Amino acid sequence: MSYELIAILMFSAMMLMLMTGQRVFGAIGFVGAAAAMLLWGTGGSDIPFSAAMKLMKWYPLLTLPMFIFMGYVLSESRIADDLYRMFHVWMGPVRGGLAIGTIGLMVLISAMNGLSVAGMAIGATIALPELLRRGYDKTMVTGVIQAGSSLGILVPPSVVLVLYAMIARQPVGQLWLAGVVPGLMMAGLFVLYIAIRCHFQPRLGPVLPAEERDIPLSEKLSLLRAGLLPLGIFAAMMVPFVNGWTSLVESSAIGAMTAFLAAVLKRRMTREVFETSVRQTLAISCMFMWIILAALGFGAVFDGLGAVRAIEDLFTEQLGLSPWMILILMQLSFIVMGTFLDDTAMLVIVAPLYVPLVQALGFDLIWYGVLYTITTQIAYMTPPFGYNLFLMRAMAPPSISIHDIYRSIVPFVAVMVIALALVMAFPQIALWLPHAVYSK
Amino acid sequence: MPRAIELYVRYVEAVNRRVGRIAMYLIFVLVGILLWSSISKTFFLPSLWTLEMAQFMMVAYYILGGPYSIQLDANVRMDLVYGSWSPRTKAWVDAFSVLFLIYFLGVLLYGGLNSTIYSLEYGERSPTAWRPYLWPIKIVMCVGIGLMILQAVAEFFKDLGRIRGEQL
Amino acid sequence: QKTIKWRMQTYAGPALAEHVVKPAIDSFNKIAGDRMQIELYFADQLVPTAELFRAMQRGTIDAVQSDDDSMASPTEVTVFGGYFPFASRYSLDVPVLFNQYGLNEIWDAEYSKVGVKHLSAGAWDPCHFATKEPINSLEDLKGKRVFTFPTAGRFMAQFGVVPVTLPWEDIEVAVQTGELDGIAWSGITEDYTVGWADVTDYFLTNNISGAWAGSFFANMDRWNELPDDLKELLKLTMDSSHYYRQWWYWGGEASLRVNGTKMKLTTIPDAEWDQVEKAAVKFWDEIAAESETKKKVVDIFKKYNADMQKAGRPYRYS
Ligand code: NA
Ligand code: NA
């Protein structure tokens, strides 16, 4: 069988299996295992388990349950409530101010955890009801929370960048730093968009009524203290890491511990919060790990059967495109695949195909990591398949329909595409910070 | 449904729930190992065993916790088409597609058993300075995958039940 | 007639494989054409390095390039693969030991017992420390977390080195993320080739082994199925790979010490380094006591090094 045929066969079988609605890891794992049994030859049956051994050796994955646990502790214990109040009071007097404040909240939440789940949960439970109560436009605020929470994987720490780092074999520290400026830039663009929209259409984001704004300055100032918590957690984790005192995985454990202690000290670590955090961390970690396990096995079979060569050959030789065209094509294919493939699976299956190609084309892999992450964020938010959409649907109040959710992301996806284009055109946006910090 | 199947589902779910609830606390063991790693590195000589021990712990965590995560319905599905089906149609398709999941797990277990037998036969050790024997973690993995198969079979029975309008 | 296809996985990542194996395999494929193609895979690409042996024994992979130590072969000779401390001083020592002092026969017998064909052993580079902080004395080595080979790690642990084993491709990242303080895995040529020179600042000129010993292996059944002329071609291919590495490393080590700008050289004085050499003699005896076969190999090392000593310059200068 030709390599091209194997590639097409395995991919379409996987798509078909996914359509049945079977658990993603089962669908991918099955195609990998079946192809290994049928096409590999001697010893093919050992590959799925061999992927489990490979996974064991991927040490940066140890950060995954740590960051998930951190996220759950932060959202379940509601220690972010004070943070929200801070933004609320300070930004209230501005048109669209609460929405802008929510983006600020999301940036801080992002600095304390590695996924978008926590931001989404906090945004949907704390910010969303308040914003709706103040007469903010529901489509606008739904979009704000989805867009804002997607910063979680661009602003360090970031699990997606850890996964990318493992696949591309690039330093996590540099990748994380490379995400900082684009993350803040994107937050800035969101704010700009909200401010401009609300300036011209004040009914989308009304200012707070006068009586609510009447808060003594001393109280306003004392609210700023709430901002110390995320700073503290971020510093406890990142300072020893960037200085090389602790390793990446050790830092993630420190982060998890700090968040846990913060919740205990603030007397928010109830029995219920504890139970939910620990149980959900297991559930979500298992979901990720089993998908990665299945995808690694699929990837090894795909590679060993020569399908990877076929795809590389297609891009570089047969289509005869320029490097930039190939790059843009790859970004587009991510979005297309994001419509039927689970995001984690996409990372583990598709990134190993593309990363060597990107390198061969002469692009910087740190820079590509940032492009990749922004594209992933877009995929997270575009229908029909995306974590952020799922989570929003699960968490939003009934007054918000699925159509509102789909509609809400349109302008924000546009902003993200602009951010993506900016980082593509000016790689220094991503690269100057890691270069400045790590230049020898 | 025959009583034997009902009992099977009940016992398998009870065992897996218990195993999963125990595995779920391994997160604290994991945190402990990693914290000890940074403490020992800062104040004493770095430990040889922490990284590998953490890796073993992580594997036990997600493999043994796997069946419980199925019970919690934590594993994402692509619901582009699936989401719009009626519960009965879902049950029909699930009852069929779960067999593919079982096949995958079966191949995984087959490879795992081979690998474990090899480990025992040759006294395989990790090629690191700490040199731990590998059979204990491989046995844990096989047990976890085995429990996963039992759980998947229970899911199959539950789907059959749903088709017949029974809740198992 | 159907093209014979082999999957071969090397211990090396793509950048290093470009020199240590790829040119030879490319030549093989060009010559063998439609009769046989070897598809080359890099470190951890199909299976993790620690699983290489088992994967080859089972036939999941047809052939492997690695040292015995890293791929955890279940044989009596595994401990001598990679860097066995102070067993060799120059890269020519390795082929002489295998071809003229009887190591080939021992390796062949040991691997036949476990269903694997030992095809051919060759020499690589010496084992030096590349570190983030300068090493000027044995004291400086204490507490350093270093990526190294299992046996080299066991040996250096007595000097306070903390050996860490990670997937090869993760090393550069691990140095940056603080998992590692340095690397004792190669000479300076590899440090520059694979990017480790970008993340470490210092290179220790003392080495704990003059040349790495690595081999090509194959699944026994796959090997036996090959027609004789292809077996012959494979042998020539492996020899061309060994030859390439002889000059590539030998020239590279000298040139980068002289002209390299990324790493500063440091040296532990001979008198102090002598402690390490003495410890190696003790270590040899410990290993020899473990089994009959190991004793046989250690005796060969002893005989060989004594012969070289007697031969005098240029074989040995001290
Ligand atoms: Na983050
Ligand atoms: Na999507």
Automatic annotation (TrEMBL), chain A:
Pfam families for the chain: DctM
Protein name per UniProt: C4-dicarboxylate ABC transporter
InterPro entries: DctM, TRAP_DctM
GO cellular component, as recorded: plasma membrane
General function of this protein: Part of the tripartite ATP-independent periplasmic (TRAP) transport system.
Localisation: Cell inner membrane
Taxonomic placement: Bacteria, Pseudomonadati, Pseudomonadota, Alphaproteobacteria, Rhodospirillales
Entry superkingdom: Bacteria
Residue ranges of domain TRAP C4-dicarboxylate transport system permease DctM subunit in the record: 14-429
UniProtKB/TrEMBL annotation, chain B:
Subcellular location field: Cell inner membrane
Cellular component terms (Gene Ontology): plasma membrane
InterPro entries to which the protein is assigned, alphabetical: DctQ (IPR055348), TRAP_DctQ (IPR007387)
One Pfam short name: DctQ
Alphabetized UniProt keyword annotations: Cell inner membrane, Cell membrane, Membrane, Transmembrane, Transmembrane helix, Transport
Source species, domain of life: Bacteria
Membrane topology: Multi-pass membrane protein
UniProt GO MF annotations: transmembrane transporter activity
Spans traversing the lipid bilayer: 21-39, 51-70, 91-113, 133-154
Domain Tripartite ATP-independent periplasmic transporters DctQ component: 30-160
Record carries keyword Transcription: no
Protein family (similarity comment): Belongs to the TRAP transporter small permease family.
Matches recorded under PANTHER family: 2,3-DIKETO-L-GULONATE TRAP TRANSPORTER SMALL PERMEASE PROTEIN YIAM (PTHR35011), SLL1102 PROTEIN (PTHR35011:SF4)
Assembly: The complex comprises the extracytoplasmic solute receptor protein and the two transmembrane proteins.
Name of this chain's protein: TRAP transporter small permease protein
